[in-house]
Amino acid sequence: MSERFADITKTISVDDVDTISVHKMNSKMLEMVLEYCKNVKHNSGLMTDVELKDWIAQFLDVDPKTLLDLLTSACYMKVDSLMKLTWSKIDGMIKGKTPEEISEIFGAADN
C-alpha cells in the first residue's frame, strides 16, 4: 500500500469523504500507481514469480516521459518498491550514455 494513502486514511473517516484530492499527479499516474499496488503489492500468490516479473516488465514498458512521471508519482505516494523498480529501469536506459544521448531519450535536448 502507498504510505501516503495510509497516512490519509488514518486521519479521515471514509464515511465522511466523497473524494480524496491527490495533488502533484495526474489521473493517469494515479491509475498506474494504483494498478501497480493492486497487482504487485497485493498479489498474494495470484501470479507466479515469473508471471509477476513479466507483468512488471510490461508495466514499465512505457515512453520515457511517462516513466519519469511514474517515478515522481511513486515518490509522492511513497511506494518504495515502485520507486526502486522505476529507478532501475531509468538506470538501464541511461547507463553508458552521454549527456546528449540522455537528453534525447527524455526529450530534454533543448534544456
UniProtKB/TrEMBL annotation:
Alphabetical list of SMART domains matching this protein: Skp1
Protein name listed in UniProt: SKP1-like protein
PANTHER family named in the record: SKP1
Protein's GO biological process: jasmonic acid mediated signaling pathway; protein ubiquitination; ubiquitin-dependent protein catabolic process
A Pfam entry, by short name: Skp1
InterPro entries with a match to the protein in the record: SKP1, SKP1-like, SKP1-like_dim_sf, SKP1/BTB/POZ_sf, Skp1_comp_dimer
Top-rank taxon, per record: Eukaryota
